[in-house]
Every structure is written in structure tokens, then in C-alpha cells.
Predict the 3D structure of the following.
Amino acid sequence: MKKFIIVIGLLMVAALATLIGTGALKSKENRMGEVAKEAAGGNKKSAVAIKGKDFKVSEKELKTKVKYFKAAGVEDPEKAAKDSFIEKESLYALAVSKGYSATQQEVDEVVEEIKQGVKEAKNEEIQNYIEGFGSEEEFWEFERELESKNLVIKKYLEDEKKDYLGSGDDGSYTSEEENRWQNHYESIKKKAIKKQKIEISY
């Protein structure tokens, strides 16, 4: 889980643009931005599609996420959307239950780093994605809300990794240690999801 995940992901799309032409991707990324904006709006009055012990996902939110994954060209976008909500919300609930939180200042610092990354990248596909929101202000409001949960999860997983593997040499780990951690992380995720007793009605 890295602070620049959105930048890295969009840079991968940019690399793809050189292979199939930027014209099609510009339209694609504008669609992704528009759909993400729609998701940010949410719809609390919509029927519940996914319910966990500590969270609910509306049909509106789920349908919007499915549209986002479709626009991104993800295989089986409905499964990807459900998995995305279930995994993130379950891990967030687990982290909060362990006492983790994020201050507004911490979230602002992460968002500023992402802003700097976007600025330095000077990448057309990233800008197309942002423009899909209608304005940069709306995009960064969406990003701030997104990062507030991401940061809580990140803090918890970083501490869990240190507890499991130790501090490592200069904070780095061998490929064998990383594989061990990945297996442990999958175990944490499965337990977190199981604890939520997920009900899917959509």
C-alpha cells in the first residue's frame, strides 16, 4: 500500500497509451474520472447491496464502482467491485478496532505528496482522469476522503508487518520475507472479512 498508488496506476495506463493510441485512452480516462466522481457523491438512500458488521455499501455505490472497473477495462468488473469494497472496508474496520486513526493533518500531508507526484509526472492521462471530475477541487476532495481510510489501513499493516518480520535491514526485507508477509497479509484479510459476516443482496 503506497501513497502514490493512484499515480502509479495511472502511469501504467499512460504506458499503455503508447501502444494503442492516446485518443481512445483519453476518452476512457475521462469516463473513469466521471464514474469516480459519481461514486464520491454516493447515495445513502439507496438499498444496501453489501452489509458487514461494521459497514454498509449501497446499490448505488456498488453499481458506480462496477462502472468504474468497466471503464478501466477490468475483467469481471462486478466481482472486482464487490471484492474491492469488502476487502477495504473489512481491513479499515479491523484497523479502527485496533485503535488506529488518521488526523486531518496526516491526510493533508499524504494528499499533498500525491499532488506533488501528479505535478511532477506531467502526464496527460492523469490530467484526463482528474478532468473527468469536472474540476481539480472536486477531485482532491474525493482523494482526501479516499486517503483518510487508506492511511488508517496503511498504519495498521505497517505495524503488523514489523511485528511479524521485525524491522528488517534498514527497513527493507528479502524476497523470502516479503513472500512470508504476503501470506500473512492474506490471512489477516481473510480473518477481517470473516469477522464482518458479509451479506450480499445485490
